[in-house]
C-alpha cells in the first residue's frame, strides 16, 4: 500500500496481543486448570484488547470455571478480554446447539459469557455483552456461515456485535493445513529448568486436531517406513531423522536441494541393502 498509495495513509495494519495453542500448553500442566495461565495473561496485559485461544483443552471448562474464578479481575481491567474458540462447528460453538441436555455446549460461547458477565440491551432490543468481555472466531468463516451465526444469535436475543469474525485460508482458498493434516505444534517445553511433555487436545474437536506429545523421533522401520515415536527420551530424539535447522532466531544449518537429494539417495541405498539382507 505504501508503494502504490503515496502520501499519508494513516494506519495500514494493526494487531492486538493474542495467544495461540503452544503458549497455553507451555503455561499449563497437561489438560490442567488454565486459571493461572489466564490470570498471568491478564496481568501481563492490564489494558486494551487481549485475545486468548480458549479451546486448547476444554473450552466449556474455561467458560464455566476459569472465567467465573477471574470475574472481578476481568470486569475491573481497563480493556476487553476476547475469548477465541478454534475447533468444532463455528455456529454451534458460538450460538449453542439448543439440544437441551443441560450442557454448556447447548448454550454456546456468547450466552455463557452473558450468564457470567451480563451487559446491556441496545436500542434495537438485543443483548450486548459487558465491554470487558467478547468473543472471536478467527477462521473457517464464510459469508454464508457468518449470516447463519448472526441470525442464530439474533434469534436468541443477542446483537451481532458480540462476535468478531476472522478470515483465514479456509475462506479465501478452501485449502488449509487441515486439508493435508499438516500443522506445526509445540510438544515439549522446558519450564523452570524441568522438561514437560505437552499436547493440544480440544474437547470440541473430533480428535483430528490432537497433536503429538513430548519429545519426538522419526525413525526408519525394518521395511524402510518412517514412523513417529512420541514421548521419547533425549537420546532417542537425537537419533531422529528430523533434526533442528532453526533455533533461538538463528539458522543452525543451511540445506541446499542437493543436500536433500543426496540424503534421499543414501536412504534409498540403505533400504535396498536391508531388503537384500532380508531376502537372503
From TrEMBL:
Keywords: Glycosyltransferase, Plasmid, Pyridine nucleotide biosynthesis, Transferase. The keyword Transferase applies. Its EC number is 2.4.2.12. The keyword Cytoplasm does not apply. Pathway: Cofactor biosynthesis; NAD(+) biosynthesis; nicotinamide D-ribonucleotide from 5-phospho-alpha-D-ribose 1-diphosphate and nicotinamide: step 1/1. InterPro entries: Aldolase_TIM, N/Namide_PRibTrfase, Nicotinamide_PRibTrfase, Nicotinate_pribotase-like_C. It is an enzyme of class 2 (transferase). It comes from the Bacteria. Residues 15-220 form the Nicotinate/nicotinamide phosphoribosyltransferase domain. PANTHER family: NICOTINAMIDE PHOSPHORIBOSYLTRANSFERASE. Belongs to the NAPRTase family. This is Nicotinamide phosphoribosyltransferase. It comes from Frondihabitans sucicola. The lineage of its organism: Bacteria, Bacillati, Actinomycetota, Actinomycetes, Micrococcales.
Amino acid at each position: 500500500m505504501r508503494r502504490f498509495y503515496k502520501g499519508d495513509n494513516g494506519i495500514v495494519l494493526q494487531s492486538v496481543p493474542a495467544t495461540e495453542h503452544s503458549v497455553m500448553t507451555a503455561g499449563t500442566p497437561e489438560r490442567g486448570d488454565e486459571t493461572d495461565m489466564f490470570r498471568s495473561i491478564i496481568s501481563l496485559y492490564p489494558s486494551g484488547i487481549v485475545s486468548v485461544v480458549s479451546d486448547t483443552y476444554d473450552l466449556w471448562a474455561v467458560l464455566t470455571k476459569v472465567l467465573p474464578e477471574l470475574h472481578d479481575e476481568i470486569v475491573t481491567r481497563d480493556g476487553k478480554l476476547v475469548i477465541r474458540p478454534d475447533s468444532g462447528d463455528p455456529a454451534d460453538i458460538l450460538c449453542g446447539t439448543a439440544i437441551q441436555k443441560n450442557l454448556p455446549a447447548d448454550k454456546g460461547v456468547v450466552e455463557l459469557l452473558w450468564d457470567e458477565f451480563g451487559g446491556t440491551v441496545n436500542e434495537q432490543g438485543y443483548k450486548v455483552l459487558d465491554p470487558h468481555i467478547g468473543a472471536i472466531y478467527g477462521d473457517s468463516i464464510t459469508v454464508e456461515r457468518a449470516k447463519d451465526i448472526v441470525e442464530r444469535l439474533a434469534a436468541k436475543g443477542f446483537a451481532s456485535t458480540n462476535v468478531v469474525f476472522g478470515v483465514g485460508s479456509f475462506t479465501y482458498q478452501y485449502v488449509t493445513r487441515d486439508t493435508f493434516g499438516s500443522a506445526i505444534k509445540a510438544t515439549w517445553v522446558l519450564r523452570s529448568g524441568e522438561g514437560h511433555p505437552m499436547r493440544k487436545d480440544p474437547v470440541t474437536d473430533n480428535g483430528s486436531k490432537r497433536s503429538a506429545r513430548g519429545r519426538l523421533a522419526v525413525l526408519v522401520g525394518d521395511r524402510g517406513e518412517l514412523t513417529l515415536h512420541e514421548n521419547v527420551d533425549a537420546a532417542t530424539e537425537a537419533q531422529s531423522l528430523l533434526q533442528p535447522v532453526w533455533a533461538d532466531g538463528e539458522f543452525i544449518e543451511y540445506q541446499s536441494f542437493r543436500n536433500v537429494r543426496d540424503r534421499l539417495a543414501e536412504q534409498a541405498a540403505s533400504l535396498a541393502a536391508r531388503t537384500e539382507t532380508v531376502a537372503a
